[in-house]
Design a protein that fits this description.
21 strands, 7 helices, about 20% helix, 10-stranded mixed beta sheet, globular
């Protein structure tokens, strides 16, 4: 590990030592031991470096220039009218902690129960086998912030549950490590919006882990929008576990943060489960966005379809690594993985690597990736019919991302995504005149 990363690691571990005694359930030996073991593993393993295959294109050395302070629960002066809310009853986390004032617990739909994570620490410590992941261990070390959502079996919720994770202003660079746990009962149906918004624009680190456990025949529609400020770092881990005949339909938007890394891990360990995942990364300026996806087909007659797109401008850099694993007993499965990317500048960069790893023989699998620029022929066609260059360019960009947005079934979520993207696309520098 480099000197810069050693410095960053020492700073993160030192911050844990400073606040360990103030964390929830710090006086419970099992919880305290779990946190200490996580920090010990982190110190032994170190932060990932570019020699690690999974981090080949993402250098974390810029973390060394910051001493992030851990933010505990605190009162906020925000009112509900100031929230960027989509639904009537948003679930609000402020700097990682569930805010009981901004979240109206009594107004939650029937069949939905919600509580702070501090009431479920023991269960969470045993919920997943250990993984070789430095930021997972960092999240484990500060375990306590976040929330637990339970959806009763057979419940159909007719409006989205919106989980808003707000970053507010702090006197110095801050970090938070929330854990979101969603347990979806058998036969239930729910739409969840997971949204990250930075109200302050200050330098910060968000290191979040989201666990979604989907019961038999249940259906989850999940929209995740990461739109934090360019001064921030965002590290996100999403784990999805599907039971028999369950469905997970998701759309992920990575359109914020100066450096972001998102890992999506989906386990299809029971027959009949279906996964549909659409994604879009938008990277401009000198921002860096890295998305890693892993779908594990461990049971027969499962299906997955992945469409992920990137729009990279200025000196931005995007990374996409999508892996689909088909195990030996996973016969009669279908898996599709496609990544398409637009480079809008000569200095923009994308590193893409779609992978299929297949150990079964009765399967239908395909994968592919494309990297290109806006079609000059299409631009010329539009210009020749009187369309201004900026308008022609915007039309082609909207067409490129449009099928990702159009696939969102919920009209409110679809409109929110359109609103977020409209501002980004409108801010792009116009292309030079064609000759």
């Amino acid at each position: 590990m480099t000197a810069a990363l050693n410095q960053a690691l020492d700073s993160l571990a030192g911050e844990f030592e400073r606040v360990a005694a103030t964390l929830p359930a710090a006086d419970q030996r099992s919880v305290a031991n779990h946190r200490t073991a996580a920090v010990d593993r982190l110190r032994a393993r170190g932060l990932p470096v570019t020699r690690d295959e999974a981090w080949k294109y993402t250098d974390l050395k810029s973390l060394a220039g910051n001493r992030f302070r851990f933010t505990g629960p605190s009162a906020t002066a925000l009112t509900r009218q100031q929230l960027p809310a989509l639904t009537a009853h948003p679930i609000v986390l402020v700097n990682g902690w569930l805010d009981p004032v901004l979240t109206d617990l009594d107004a939650l739909p029937t069949g939905v129960s919600l509580s702070g994570l501090d009431q479920h620490l023991t269960a969470l410590m045993q919920s997943r086998a250990p993984v070789d992941d430095a930021f997972q261990w960092l999240n484990d070390a500060f375990l306590g912030a976040g929330l637990h959502v339970n959806i009763d079996a057979g419940i159909a919720i007719d409006q989205p549950l919106e989980i808003i994770c707000l970053r507010t202003a702090t006197d110095e660079p801050a970090m938070c490590h929330p854990r979101l746990r969603l347990d979806i009962g058998a036969g239930a149906s729910v739409t969840v919006l997971e949204r990250y918004v930075d109200l302050a624009g200050a330098q910060a680190l968000t290191n979040v882990v989201t666990d979604i456990v989907i019961g038999q025949t249940a259906t989850v529609t999940h929209c995740r929008i990461q739109a934090e400020s360019p001064a921030s770092y965002h590290i996100g881990r999403t784990y999805v576990d599907l039971a028999r005949d369950a469905t997970y339909q998701a759309t992920h938007f990575d359109i914020g943060a100066g450096l972001s890394r998102t890992d999506i891990n989906i386990e299809q360990h029971s027959e009949g489960s279906v996964v549909g995942l659409d994604g879009l990364m938008f990277v401009d300026g000198k921002r860096h966005c890295d998305c890693h996806l892993n779908i594990d087909h461990a049971a027969p007659r499962t299906r997955s379809t992945v469409r992920y797109k990137g729009v990279i401008d200025d000196e931005g850099r995007g990374v996409f690594n999508g892996r689909i694993l088909v195990r030996q007993d996973a016969q009669q499965i279908s898996a599709q993985l496609h990544n398409r990317n637009l480079l809008l500048s000569a200095r923009a960069e994308i590193d893409t690597k779609p992978e299929l790893e297949i150990y079964a023989d009765d399967v239908q699998c395909a994968h592919g990736a494309t990297v290109g620029q806006l079609d000059e022929t299409a631009l010329f066609y539009l210009r020749s019919r009187g369309v201004p260059l900026a308008t022609a360019r915007a039309l082609l960009l909207h067409a490129f991302v449009g099928d990702i947005v159009d696939a969102i079934a919920d009209s409110k979520l679809r409109q929110l995504a359109l609103t977020e993207l409209a501002g980004l696309l409108a801010a792009l520098e116009p292309l030079p005149e064609l000759t």
